[in-house]
Amino acid sequence: PLHQQMISDFGVNLEDGRSQLALERLDDSRLNWQVVMSEGRNRQIRRTFAALGYTVVRLHRVQFGNYSLGNMKRGEWQSISAS
Fold first, then answer.
1. How many angstroms separate the most distant Cα atoms in the chain?
2. Mind listing the domains of the chain with CATH numbers?
3. Would the pLDDT of 2 be above 60?
4. Backbone dihedral region of 30: left (phi > 0), alpha (psi from -120 to 50 degrees) or beta?
5. Would you list the DSSP string of 12-33?
6. H or E element: which one contains 9?
7. Contacts for 20-29 with beta carbons within 8 Å, 24 or more apart?
8. Is there a contact between 2 and 52 (Cβ–Cβ < 8 Å)?
9. Which of 26-35, 55-64, 70-79 has the lowest mean pLDDT?
């Protein structure tokens, strides 16, 4: 089984280097996970889970750097400054 401590302690070796993610199970079904990463390489989450024997069906990004979706609904948008 996939364990957060296993990923945090050892990471997962991928072709382009080690992938280290912080994982949190969101429910008891083992289907929904929160993934936190500081560096995002091409398809890193999908490749990491595949290396552990899991298939990622859907991803939903909720934060990028300092920008977060918060309570925004689908189709809503906000202006951001360039500074």
1. 44
2. 4-65 (3.30.70.1560)
3. no
4. left
5. EEETTEEE--EEEE-STTS--E
6. helix 4-10
7. 21/45, 21/48
8. yes
9. 26-35
